[in-house]
Design brief:
With about 600 residues, the protein is an alpha/beta fold. Helix content is about 35%, strand content about 20%. The strands form six sheets. The protein has an eight-stranded parallel barrel, surrounded by four helices. Strands 17-20-21-27-24-25 form a six-stranded antiparallel β-sheet.
């Protein structure tokens, strides 16, 4: 039986924007003037801008106290690093350089006045190699008393000077000749040596500035759960980094293989456990322990998992998370595999619409190339982002995405490397095209009344044209979204799986004297289709990379005017007559295309 998390009403309409905390503060200093060093020192205008962009959740990336050893490792390997990695966490307390817990509390209060809540990160599977736990509880980590390979040597610099223990990573990792799986920890008082494993997901190189927590110990699991609860009490939205690595089957695969299995991490096969031994030490899913503790001790927290490896459905159906990353959305759109993406969504909708509602869709994240560099700044980007805003699930926008910025920020950045400023024309277009849709997330959040449509052209299905619609839900009239994800103009007929497109919206073919009526966003005009025009099906014509959202679709008598909604009425009041609207649209498109940006 599915075990879906209970949702508060606000969770369905959440729309998240990520900000790499130290980079964002440096940008605010440059953009608004003055020195913004602490989380609570940013100007109110910056928070007002995020709200004007249509967001209601601010995800602070890299706000925790970081590892000094991580920064030194990067420098030793020839990287210019201002900070240690955001995911080599010394402790889950707000960094003193960012103003500490007091600054976070003040930011939360100020953000709330602009309708913004805060989201935070939780790094559960590992800590930094010089973390508080490595100092105080070295027994909590996956380890061996001797180096797992006789050729390992640890003669490099001590990465925790002035602390009660010394830390050295393996010499080959520094020189690039070996991806060592452990580092050395030496107790200065007793001389005791331990060899702790680096964090690792078993698919690539170990993360050389991290130490892997051992989840076979009940005491360790309780300590991590307590940390999660403490973080949840400060952040109403909590994102779990690399959450798939702590699913029970992967704890087994990566760290504790069965006898005779090689194991995903080299050297772990020698420490194999039988099924009986493993089951006794880890009888259930760790994530269920987390979910149950949050429900009891920090209720109302929205839990969001960064998870891959085909575990997306398990996180929301079995493990009890509210949301899970849907990486296929970004990857397949970026690669132009539109039919494959549509097929995946249709399959999920057919099997369990509730899963589709619990995806986090995105075009970029803090770990990915910027949306600008992948999708451009023209119609291709705004079309893809229209899908992001109008599909069930939670839309996530990356750092700089709404401002039209291009830089991909390293997790060790204290400031941007490029002197970018917000592209005001791009941001104005975002606020005209995307922000109104984001504010209407409620009407797009449910998959219960969702239908994916086909668009048929003279030669068959137009695979690169996306179309989906929503039937009326008691609060909203039907809506239709179409996007031509190709550089060529297209024309075709909308077809639902069981008949005409309007039937999928719960409407009938207009009678004589009636019209199918809708507001067309972002064009600001009304679509009016007669019975005669619809007898051969609802035809759409789209320019290169053009997206149109038909809002409040309904059948009305000939003299009837489109009924306003908060969105359509606001757009109509500011649109002026048709000629003015058309001229403004041409100017806007000319400005967007004049810069020679990629993809439209």
């Amino acid at each position: 039986e599915p075990r879906y998390a209970v949702e508060a009403p606000w969770m369905r309409s959440a729309r998240i924007v990520a900000k790499v905390a130290p980079v964002w503060l440096a940008q605010l200093s440059a953009w608004y003037g003055g020195q913004v060093r602490r989380l609570d020192e940013g100007p109110d205008a910056a928070l007002a801008d995020l709200a004007a962009d249509g967001f209601d959740t601010l995800w602070l990336v890299g706000g925790w106290e970081r590892s000094a050893a991580s920064r030194e490792i990067k420098r030793l390997q020839g990287m210019y690093a201002d900070l240690g990695s955001a995911y080599a966490v010394h402790d889950h307390v707000v960094a003193a350089d960012l103003g500490g817990e007091e600054a976070l509390s003040r930011l939360a209060e100020r953000a709330a006045r602009h309708g913004l809540r805060l989201a935070g990160d939780m790094v559960a599977n590992h800590t930094a190699i010089d973390s508080r736990w490595v100092e105080e509880r070295p027994d909590w980590f996956v380890q061996t008393p001797e180096p797992p390979y006789p050729g390992y040597s640890f003669t490099g610099p001590d990465l925790s000077p002035g602390r009660p223990f010394a830390v050295r990573i393996e010499d080959g990792y520094l020189t690039g000749t070996d991806a060592a799986v452990v580092f050395e920890r030496v107790d200065r008082a007793t001389g005791e040596r331990r060899y702790l494993y680096h964090g690792n997901d078993g698919t690539g190189l170990p993360w050389n500035d991290t130490a892997q927590v051992d989840f076979l110990h009940p005491e360790v699991r309780r300590a991590v759960v307590d940390t999660v609860v403490a973080v949840a009490r400060r952040f109403p939205v909590l994102r779990f980094d690399a959450a798939m690595t702590l699913v029970r089957q992967h704890v087994r695969r990566i760290w504790h293989p069965a006898p005779g299995e090689g194991g995903a991490v080299p050297s772990r096969a020698e420490l194999a456990l039988t099924d009986e031994e493993f089951d006794a030490l880890m009888p259930g899913e760790f994530w269920r322990e987390v979910v149950d503790a949050i429900a009891e001790r920090a209720p109302g927290t929205m839990l969001l998992a960064e998870a891959f490896w085909l575990l997306e459905e398990a996180f929301v159906k079995r493990l009890g998370f509210h949301r899970v990353y849907n990486s296929a959305f970004m990857q397949l759109l970026a690669e132009g595999k539109d039919g494959e993406m549509r097929g995946l969504m249709e399959d999920v909708l057919r099997r369990d619409p509730a899963v589709l509602e619990r995806y986090v869709n995105y075009l970029t994240t803090p770990d990915e190339e910027s949306a600008k560099n992948v999708f451009g700044t023209g119609d291709r980007y705004f079309g893809a982002a229209t899908l992001l805003c109008t599909l069930p699930g939670t839309p996530l926008f990356g750092h700089g995405q709404a401002e039209g910025l291009s830089e991909e920020y390293g997790m060790e950045f204290a400031a941007p490397r490029l002197p970018e400023r917000p592209d005001e024309g791009f941001r104005e277009h975002h606020r005209r095209v995307l922000a109104p849709l984001l504010r209407q997330r409620e009407r797009f959040a449910s998959a219960a009344n969702l239908t994916f449509l086909r668009v048929l052209g003279p030669g068959g299905e137009l695979e690169r044209v996306h179309a989906h619609c929503f039937a009326a839900d008691g609060r909203h009239l039907p809506a239709l979204v179409v996007f031509n994800h190709s550089p060529e103009s297209v024309a075709g007929t909308l077809v639902a799986p069981s008949g005409p497109a309007w039937e999928a919206m719960g409407l009938s073919l207009p009678s004589d004297g009636q019209h199918l009526v809708a507001h067309r966003h972002p064009h600001g005009d009304a679509a009016r289709l007669s019975r005669e025009e619809l007898l051969g099906g609802w035809r759409v014509e789209l320019g290169p990379y053009e997206a149109v959202v038909y809002l409040d679709v309904r059948v009305e008598g000939e003299a009837a005017l489109p009924a306003p909604t908060p969105l359509t009425d606001r757009l109509r009041r500011g649109a002026g007559d048709a000629a003015v609207r058309a001229a403004a649209l041409r100017r806007a498109r000319s400005r967007r295309r004049g810069g020679g940006s990629a993809g439209g």
